[in-house]
Amino acid sequence: MRLTGITKRFAGLVANDDISFALGQGEIVALLGENGAGKTTLMNILFGHYVADAGYVEAFGKILPPGDPKAALDAGIGMVHQHFTLADNLTVLDNIVLGTRRLFSPRLDRASARKKIAAIASDFGLAVDPGRPVGTLAVGERQRVEIVKALYRDARVLILDEPTAVLTPGEAAALFSTLRAMAARGLSVIFISHKLNEVMAASDRVVVLRGGRVVGERRTAETSREDLAHLMVGREVPPPRLGEAMRGGARLRLDGVTTDDSHGTPLDHVSLELRSGEITGVAGVSGNGQGSLAALLSGLIAPVSGTLSLGDAPVRRWSPRAALGAGIGRIPEDRHTVGAIGDMSVAENAVLERLRDRRFSRAGFLRADAIRDHAAGLIEGYQVKCPSPEARIRLLSGGNMQKLILGRALDGDPSVILASQPTRGLDVGAVAYVQQQLLAARARGAAILLISEDLDEIFALSDRICVMFRGRMSEPFDRASKTPAAIGAMMAGQGFETEQAA
Amino acid sequence: MRLEAIDAPSTPTTLLYPVGAVLVTFVVASGLVMMAGASPLAVFVLVARGAAGSQFALLETLTRATPLIFTGLAVAVAFRARLWNIGAEAQLYAGAVVTVVLGTGALPLPAPLLLPLIAVSAMLAGALLLLGPALLKTRFGVDEVVTTLLLNFVMILFVSMLLEGVLKDPTGLGWPQSQRVIAEARLPRIIEGKRLHWGFIVAIVSAFIIWVVMKKTALGTEMRAVGHNAEAARFAGIPVGTVIVKTALLSGGLAALAGFSEVSGLKGNLTLDLSPGFGYSGIVVAMLALLNPVGVVFSALFVAAIFVGADAMSRSAQVPSYIADVMVATALLTMVVAVMLTRYRIRRR
Amino acid sequence: MMEAFEIFLSASFWVAAIRIASPLIFATMGELVCERAGVLNLGIEGIMVSGAFAGWLAVYLGADLWTGVAVAALTGMAFGLLHAALTVPLGLSQHVVGIGITLLATSLTYFTYRIVLPEVTSPPKIAAFQPLKIPVLSDIPVIGPALFNQTPLTYLAFATVAIVAWVLARTPLGLAIRAAGENPSAVEAQGISVTGIRVGAVMAGSGLMAVGGAFLTMSAFDSFFFEMVNGRGWICIALVVFGSWRPGKALVGAILFAAFDAYQIRLQQIAGDVVPYQVFLMMPYLLSIAALVLVARRATYPRALMIPYRKGER
Question: Which residue of B has its CA nearest to C105?
């Protein structure tokens, strides 16, 4: 398979710029690059979800028609998306069979499908239960279903987009041994990643993307982590350093808190203390209760049992407004659908949390001048690049939108700050800026909870670290006291069995 | 084919497409007129003359626009907060029933006291009628489209029951109609001897007040926030359920004013044909105005003109007056397409 | 008081119930197909009106009854195509478009009626479908006449339920429809066009709704009146929810509902002096609302219902 001169623009931004590379039979190629380097866009073009503005894709000597997933599938290309394309209410079998029969044939022939799935399962060590609804499966199992889905259609090239983002280190290792087995049978694999470790461990060859271009290509055996890191980032970014902070007592405490499951895996008797002038980092594979923890601190859900205390007083009524009133600054995980309202203006978004404050409305009437001044202040203070406070916030780039949300959360020196995936999907400059601001808030004495999937970020910013697993929370430990490998084992559940027994 | 979002539509396109929508509507109508064996040009001239060709025609259009402004505002307010109130028809009748109950002599008050009292009571009735579906939506997640639609049928049967029962006019010769409201409960005519009444002025003032509410108050901002993205609004501390309930009360109240104004200003009593679908036309009025309260006044005049003009036209030409309903429905569909085209660009591949 | 219960034992009651259920069954299946593909079709009320008129008109102008049914279905599919064109590739609000289609289909029907029959006072009649007795089976007491002495269109209604259930559960097409209503990107990722599936489903569903309307003018009655459909479409939307989007359950819901409707008509004759007849007429609508409230909490609705799918949207 070969890509030649692929170029794709989105509204003024060049996501892919003249990208070319080739994939041989039985080869595992890693596509390495930071968030926003254009990896996912490239794969979507390859698979036919997007249409390239220039360039073409060749598979087994034939040029694929652009924008046609069916042609890619027929050519033997299978894709495992980062966000799985599975229907939760359908069974595993139905998800796999979907699209493999002629649409108007009268029979689905589930029996023969079941046989073929069993054969694939035993060939590649991919055990799946065809009869279960996908919605009841764990994340790792769903990924297996996606891979079986591709193999079921006799894929000879498999593309995986950030396959380990949702896996524990152990599951990831199992995935890579499956990929090895597939390559040994003559299948070719492309996987996309921004993690140097797994690229070094699992690939034959590495193609590095930066800013939408191919900046280097290396045989894995002939390169090093440092070399790749240099290619990927382009310039050295000094890691942030924890400075002195005004330490103080507990600002927020959870005692044996259990929640409902409206925001994913519920919290299960979680106890935690956020202290003034400290950043507490929460590590864990996504989907292990971080969503519920963030929702709890945001005020979206209240404890079902256990207590949430602010200072020394346990709270009774808990809502987003109560959380705001208690001085909790919140940075939500999903800035596009939760943090901001795309079709409202930058100014309106800036004051959305405080519409009813006397600063911004009197007797129900808005104070337009005060709102505009406040928005202008945030725009300047947090270096938000935007045409005007009246512009719809949808027009801002992800980094600028996040800076505004950051400004809104940090405004008025909150005593507690929830930062949920604060730097995900941002470019290097914006990441550094957001991290700096969090550290500045720590220096001023705020108690900060940092939830991140990026272990490096957790290590760089946190005073203390906790690990979440299946809704439970480990004891916090000093960041210097454990190695990343030890934390990886905890993320996979080590140390949690004993607590349950006790 | 795929759609690409346009970041900042230019002013000409935002104006051009709605004009195009109206043009397409007239093209469709022309086809139907020809189907009926008449000449489109001649028919449209008759429609225009019937809607605005004389003082009588013009006043008739303004009179017909009055209830449409109220129901259009009711829908515009609700749709802004993404509360799909399709029940303006029922809320209109609720307002009309209250007007008749309080206005036929039960309260011996002078007009300056009685009229506001009736208006407020009518609004309360309409508000309460929409409160049910709103609470079912916020508490149980029941889709309000179906509940408000079904309540339209329940309400008209309820009115029918009242008109054959407790509200029946004993001198009505068996027709299901109510007694006439007393003189103190009548909205005065704007010009003596003509049908146009003070309800029209109240409608214009209401449109202005709603514009202020949507644009200048915290509640209006909250309603828009809930409409655009309820999840983000909840996160930002806006009480989403409460805002939806407030929206429902406002919307239901506005629709009920249409019933009050029709009975108290125009008809004088309540019959089963008080509204020839003003509640449903209100949806079109609101959409044509792009949910802008001031725009509602103009789109209500436009829709009223088509109805009044088509009525007059059908008396002299062989084209059924249902052409007006077709045009209004077509305008609704072409308008939503036009709005989309101002925000998205269609690209082949 | 006994009288009120004896109604349930009479064969004529059940005959009426199945007759009342038939149009609801067609239209409910139609709506169900649309919603399983992820599209709420609020055009249902108007599409039923247009089908009632188109089928009747074809027969009135000399076509045979089955041609009339086909004409009704095609009319419904045409409005379905319009609905789908606006809501699927263009992704417009399914609420607003649906209401617009209902207004358009209804007004176009009335307009055409006035043009075709400019000067009639009482609507003309056609020779409608007659009951077709199925030997042996129709002799079973109560159930026999109710189920096996109905018009062919009623048999077709029951067959439709079986066909819809079979297609959805057992064929590749049905799987694609269900997947389009659950997660359209899963359909696209497997090389099937979401647009194609949804447009097709809405057209087929709208065809069924129109046949449901045609049942009124060609089987239940023999002429076309204004206000004939009278909210039945909205009731069918409630029935789809009540049936948890499953054909079998929706069928049970339609029959239960129709039985209640037939019952209230008979109760009206017994208790009409005490309670105003309007109270009985309100019952079907109130019952629909009650049914919605009852199941809303635990309904597992198609996940992608009312969510437009835009390919490649970022």
Answer: B326
Query: Which residue in the set C171, C175, C186 is minimally distant from A86, CB to CB?
Result: C186
The total number of structural domains in chain C stands at: 1
Among candidate residues A172, A101, A95, A184, the one with its CA nearest the CA of residue A139:
A172
Tokens representing A449? 């909870």
Tell me the nearest-neighbour CA distance from C115 into chain A, angstroms. 41
- Helix (H) or strand (E) holding B63, with range, is helix B55-80
pLDDT digits (tens, 9 = 90+) for C113-140: 999 988 777 888 999 999 888 887 887 8
| pLDDT tens digits, one per residue of B251-273 | 999 999 999 999 999 999 999 99
Nearest to A329 by CA among A437, A466, A255: A437
Same domain membership, residue A223 and residue A312: no
Provide the CA B16 distance to its chain's centre, in angstroms: 25
C240 domain residue, yes or no: no
**H or E stretch at C60:** helix C44-60
**A128: domain range?**
2-233
Provide the β-strand partners of residue B345: B4
Whether chain B has a CB inside 8 Å of the CB on C28: the answer is: no
Helix (H, G, I), strand (E, B) or coil at A6: strand
| Cβ-defined contact of C170 to A107 (cutoff 8 Å) | yes
Q: How far is CA A110 from the centre of its chain?
A: 35
Q: Are A191 and A163 in contact (CB under 8 A)?
A: yes
Output the pTM of the full model.
0.91
Residue owning tokens 């059924």: B320
Amino acid at A179: L
Alpha carbon distance A79, A71 (integer Å) = 13
Chains A, C: CB contacts within 8 A come to 86
For residue B231, the chain A residue with the least C-alpha distance is A338
Q: Is A394 on the interface with C (CB under 8 A)?
A: no
DSSP state string for C152-205 = HHHHHHHHHHHHHHHHHHHSHHHHHHHHHHH-HHHHHHTT--HHHHHHHHHHHH
The first and second tokens of residue C178, run together, are 């269900």
- Residue in C173, C178, C311 nearest the CB of A103: C173
CA distance C87 to chain B (A): 10
CATH of the domain at A36: 3.40.50.300
Mutate to test the interface with A, among C187, C190, C305, C311 (most CBs of A within 10 A): C190
Domain count within chain A: 2
**Is residue B340 included in any domain, yes or no?**
no
Torsion of CA B245, B251, B256, B262, to 10 degrees: 180
A261 with A338, same domain: the answer is yes
- The alpha carbon of A8 is separated from its chain's Cα centroid by a whole number of angstroms, namely 23
The single-letter DSSP state of residue A58 is: E
Instruction: Please give the helix or strand (H or E) that residue B232 lies within, else none.
Output: helix B230-235
Contact present, C79 and C213 (Cβ < 8 Å): no
Nearest Cβ partner for A337 among B229, B236, B238: B229
Answer yes or no: do A229 and A257 share one domain: no
Which of the pair, A312 or C47, is modelled with greater confidence? C47
Residue A393: inside a domain, yes or no?
A: no
Percent of chain A with pLDDT over 70: 96
Provide φ and ψ at C151, rounded to 5°.
-80, 160
Q: How far apart are the first and last CA of chain C?
A: 65
The number of residues in chain A equals: 502
> Does A365 reside within a domain?
no
Q: Which residue of B has its CA nearest to C195?
A: B1
- Smallest CA-to-CA distance from A31 within A21, A15, A187 is with A21
Are A35 and A80 in a shared domain? yes
